[in-house]
Predict the structure of Cadherin 8.
Amino acid sequence: SWENKCHSNAQTVRGNADRRVDFLSKSLQTGSTALLRGLVEGQRILSRAKRGWVWNQMFVLEEFSGPDPILVGRLHTDLDVGSTPIKYVLAGEGAGTIFAINEITGDIHAMKRLDREEKAEYTLTAQVTNRDTDQPLEPPSEFIIKVQDINDNPPQFVEGPYRASVPEMSQVGTSVTRVTATDADDPVYGNSAKLVYSILEGQPYFSIDPNTAIIKIALHGMDREMREEYLVVIQAKDMGGHMGGLSGTTTVTVTLTDVNDNPPKFSKSMQNFVIPEELGIGKPGGKVKANDRDIGENAKSTYNIIDGDEKDVFEITTDAQTQEGILRLKKPLNFETKKSYTLKVEAANIRFDPNSGAPFKDTATVKIAVEDSDEPPIFSKPTFVLQVNENAPINTVIGTVTARDPDVTGSLVRYFIDRHTDLERQFNINVDDGKITLAKPLDRETDMWHNITVTATEIRNHSQISRAIVAIRVLDINDNAPEFATEYEAFLCENGKPGQVIQTVSAVDKDDPIQGHYFEYRLIPEMLNNPNFTIKNNGDNSISVLAKHDTFRRQKQEMYFLPIIVTDNGTPPMSSTNTLTIRVCGCSREGIVQSCNVEAYVLPIGLSMGALIAILACIILLLVIVVLFVTLRRHKNKPLIIKDDEDVRENIIRYDDEGGGEEDTEAFDIATLQNPDGINGYLPRKDIKPDLQFMPRQSGGPNGVDVDEFINVRLHEADNDPTAPPYDSIQIYGYEGRGSIAGSLSSLETASSDSDQNYDYLREWGPRFRRLGELYSVGESLGFLWSVI
């Protein structure tokens, strides 16, 4: 069992007795055995209590800053009778660092300055042990030390500064926003965290509830157009607002939002515009604007023409960006007809307050003066349709177009044909009266319609031009004879029967009579009694050609020609003679044509004519190939010799020289200029015909000759060579690479021809030269074939 005796201080003066008694009363709790020892009124009071007290809490003031550690409380057990050596032991949060216990007396002291806002309570364990043996005399007991709060934290607006908005012209008492301040002090103990709100700046426009911190409108008729933004300073003070309390402030920016409380207003009630009469349809002719002090949607207006003379000539639209009313033309203006217009334009807000009953609006009068312009001539009709007969004589008058100058002055008009629409110049027009005449004969069968453009120009101002379309229709006359619809070629079977239909014939006519076509067919007078064929009218503008007998034979006559006259029903009638070709053919029993050629009888056995032609074509193709190959071979063997008739200044001789093969690694070595295989470095000339009689014999030359010296020697020899041409030429020094088992493949310096050589040895050089040997073998075979032919 424990005794708990709490002291505020051993040297506490008598004036602190009341506070000490209050502190001690909070520290005492029930326990098994508790003994209260304290100083009250300067006298020592001894009392003995039964084991009915339980204690588990102690208290200590935060932020204590005295010179000595503050006494928190005293632990005591009834085992401490003086005969037993006991020791008090403290464990738990802060034991040994923040809190220390006197092992003998059991006094607990706070060693450091405490802050309740950092940690409000500490849980510790107390135990009594034998001082000599450290054996526990009683079980451990847990208790709590609470840190008592003092007013050491000011209120804070964590969410500040604030921004709020409220509609303009709001009623007094309208809520704007609510602010909230927090105090870190203990809200349960005392008034350290009891806050009161007030306005430091922002009166008389706003007020605040001291307890709820709700900001409200305090002034009637707050107009956004006068002032849009207000800055309000709010203070929160603890200790219930009493003197000595701590305070904090924040700002609230209040913005008045716009309401539609202002109507649109025209800057001038009378507005004037001057619009040229040539202004196009839909083009803007002027702008009006009504200003609105509101903003956003509340400032948007729509414009309408509500009154005026001939309102349908103009229309007004609203520009969504500039909020202007744009006057546009709906109909063309004519200064000569009407010189001015007066309109009444209204501007009304799109949005309006339903409580007002009607939208805000304003009106203005718009006067429009039409400005006279030099207008182009106007045709009496936008499109003229004229008619003319085909084949009409030249200078025939087709029709007349008319135009006038609409201006007051009334200038004369001249007419022209746009030749881009009459490239063939088939029509003419009188420049003064607009009569259109024919310049060339027209053919309806070629073009049924002609569309030309006629221009009308003022005499005094050639830039004023108008255009009109003239459509000329060519009327038909019967000037075309009918003819066969196609080139017919009929076939007649040898075994045909008399009266058999050989061919059905129809005709066409390029003319287009109103009453339609009707054709009459007949044989020419000389063949009215034709012994072989006759015709029969089918009643649909066609006829059938019939055979009169069955004795037609190809050996006797292979082909028959039947002239037929076709006549139309025009005025005057037109006719033509058309010839039908009829072939006699061999047919099967079913009447299917099999052969119409006479050679089927001439060549009944053996090759046909087609086969002979194919064989002849192959032979000719083979001869062409052989001739081409021989020509190429001869061209290849032509010696490289400069002839006098081909000799020109600055002549460059080029030839292809093949290298020594894949094993040649010295073909591009500059040391080849030394020509170690030549006699005294001699190289044959390539620009003149070589003289084999005086060509020196080649032998090994000295090695290590300087290239520059070598070239200088060759230059000296070329300058003093009597066989060289008397002008500049290019000296080519060639060197054949070494290492190839095939030797040189070049034929430029060989005296023998290809025809004297046998190229079978090329196949023995290996697979790399096999294809080359085959090519030369094929060449020899073709040469042999050519000689045989």
User: Anything to note?
Assistant: The first helix runs from residue 17 to 27.
